[in-house]
Structure formats: C-alpha cells, structure tokens
Amino acid sequence: MKKVLVVRNDKIGDFMLAWPAFAMLKQSMPGTEVTALVPSYTADLARLCPWIDQVIVDCGKHGSREQKSQLLSSLKLAGFDAAICIFSDAYNARLIWKAGIPVRLAPATKIWQFLYNQRIVQRRSRSEKPEFEYNIDLIRAFLNSLGKEPVLPEGPYLTFDPLSLEIQREKLATQLGLSMASNWLFVHAGSGGSANNLSLTQYRDLVAGIYAKADVEVVLTAGPGEEEKARELKALLAEQGISSTVYDKNSGLQDFTCSLACASYFIAGSTGPLHIAATVNVPTVGFFPNKRSATPLRWKTINTEGRHIAFAPPADADKEVASDMSRISVPSILPDVLTFMAKFI
User: Fold this and answer.
1) Is 281 left (phi over 0), alpha (psi -120 to 50) or beta?
2) Which of 23, 34, 99, 173 lies 20 to 30 A from 205 at CA?
3) What is the pLDDT of residues 147-189, one digit of tens each?
4) Domains 3-145 and 163-342 share a fold
5) Which one of the record's GO molecular function terms can you name (predicted)?
6) pLDDT tens string 140-154
7) Cα distance between residue 340 and residue 306, in whole Å
8) Are 288 and 191 in contact (CB under 8 A)?
9) Neighbours of 130 (CB within 10 A)
C-alpha cells in the first residue's frame, strides 16, 4: 500500500473530526502517501493537517461534466492502491468505483455499498459513540485487513510554533484593539445552518456572567453570512456595558485557524469553528441539541481530555423539544462554565 485515498468531502466540522483517523493511518503506515479528497472549502484546512501528504479538490456532484471528467482522470492517474470513504454516499461510491481503485472500503450502509469491496457495519444512526471514533474504526478495519498494528492517535492534532502564534497574536491585537496581556474569549454565535444554537440573548447572558467573574476580552467571530448576527450580539453586550469586538475578516481558513489558536477559550454551538478550535486544543464550551443524531456525545470535539465541556437541553422523547436550545438555562450552567474556564487561567 504505497498510496491511499481518504474521502471526507462534506462539511468543515465533519472534516475536522476526521483528523484522528488521518493521524492513525499515517502513524500506523508512515511510508504510505495519504491523499485527502475534500471540497474546495476545506482544502486549506486539509493542507494544514500534518498527516495528509496530498490534497485533491472534489468538484462535487453539482460540478460540470468537464470538472467531473477531470477529477476522475486525476484519481485514475494517481494510481491509488486503496480508498477509504469515511463519508459515503451514492456520488462517492460511484466515483471511487469508476476510478478503478483496487481496495475500496466504506461503512456498510445504503444500497450503493455494493460498489465497495470492503465494508464494515457501523450503525452511525444510533449515535452510540463520537463521530471521530466511527472514523477511526474505519481506519482500524483497514489496518487490520493488512495485518498492521493500529497506532492510537493522541491530540492535540494541530499545533503552531510559538513564533507564529506570537506574530498572529500581535496582528490580532492590532486589528481588533485587544490587549496582549488579556485572556481572549472567542464566541461564535453563528450556526452555519447545521445545528440549532443558543439565541443571541442566551449568548449575551452567558458572556455577561463570564465577564462579571473573569478577566477576559470578548471577540465575536463570524463566518460568511454571519456578520450581522455577530454585530447584533455586540450591540446586546454593549447595552450591558460590555465591550466586544467583531472578528469577521481574515485571510482564509488557515489564517482563521491560527487566530483561533490564539484564543484563551472558545464558545460556540455544534459548528465548524468549534471543531477547528478543538483541533488546535483551545478549551471549548459547546452547545448541542439533545436529539440522537446531534448529541454532545455524537459530535464530541477532539480536544485532549478535560479541555471541553458540553451542554444540551434536558432529554425528551419529542425531537423538537429535545432540539429546543431555549431550554438550556444560562444561570444554571454558568457556575460550571466558570469552573471549567478557571482551570486554564
């Protein structure tokens, strides 16, 4: 096995949760060239991953006929010995099969599984373990099929050298008007549409409670389309006498990731930036729905032990009620958040 393709071509958060799988594969087979097939919006993140050697950008199922033809040609010319589809759908199954890759491994789900010649049963819909563990299980099965001993990966999964962090921190301090001597509390109120999040008033109350007890400067992060929400939260905080700054301009995902590594704490719902922050091992506070497909267990971050705390609405058999984030009581969780944050001062 000289060249292995790993497919994880969906959302940012899902891709970040595949980093332990990439780490296991590369550390267990260091002489193997690992290539990631990813969409354009996660390609820069893939290029940051120390366990990915090459990146191929996927045009996706909505790509033009010419783009799809070029992608297929690239996969054929690369001469992969195996492909592991961490994320499998009809598009991926057909693509890998058409590419003629000899070993094709994926979860044994849906009707298109017949296009793979190695499959493992996972039952991800039961959400019995974290997503990153399901991803690792696929790599473990692949290694076992080769008689290779899996090397269990450990975080942090991405680190920046101290000089790079110091330069980035100085740049942010100048750009956002922050003190280099302060603890920086990053808050991301956007959701990317992937999961329910706290309301802006809940975030206001949470930040106000933290601000009253901890020495922090507040940075409100925002991705494309989330700028207005960040500014609304800034206005709500200002009404409480709390100064904050909106961080919505950067030089791309690699720059944004380095900025998150400068944070003292990161607070968000179950969204891509939360999982990026966890990858660089910033202490994270996450908010999740309580329906089975979206629980704190299923989408647990890849922070090292003790550097993540999660909250969800009380359990309920009604899916809509279980996803009602207004049922998270900020006054009730605030003591736990403050205790968690105090560990890292």
Assistant:
1) left
2) 173
3) 999 999 999 999 999 999 999 999 999 999 999 999 999 999 9
4) yes
5) ADP-heptose-lipopolysaccharide heptosyltransferase activity
6) 999 999 999 999 999
7) 9
8) no
9) 19
Superfamily of domain 163-342: Glycogen Phosphorylase B; (3.40.50.2000)
Q: Which fold has domain 3-145?
A: Rossmann fold (3.40.50)
Nearest residue to 131 via CA among 217, 270, 3, 17: 17
Q: Which two tokens stand for residue 282?
A: 């910033």
- Ramachandran area for residue 110 (φ above 0: left; ψ -120 to 50: alpha; else beta): left
Q: pTM, whole model, 2 decimals?
A: 0.96
SS3 percent helix, strand, coil of the chain, rounded to 5, is: 45, 15, 40
Q: Three-state SS for 277? A: helix
CA 125 vs. chain centroid, Å, equals 19
The amino acid at 66: E
Tokens 């594969």 sit on residue: 25
CA distance 269 to 284: 10
Long-range contacts of 315-319 (CB under 8 A, 24+ apart): 315/290, 316/290, 319/291
Q: For tokens 């999660």, name the residue.
A: 310
Looking up tokens 């060249």, which residue turns up?
3
Q: Which helix (H) or strand (E) holds 40?
A: helix 40-48
Task: Give the sheet arrangement for strand 118-120, strand by strand.
Answer: 54-58, 33-39, 3-7, 82-85, 103-107, 118-120
Q: Please measure the distance between the N-terminal and C-terminal CA atoms of the chain and give it in whole angstroms.
A: 46
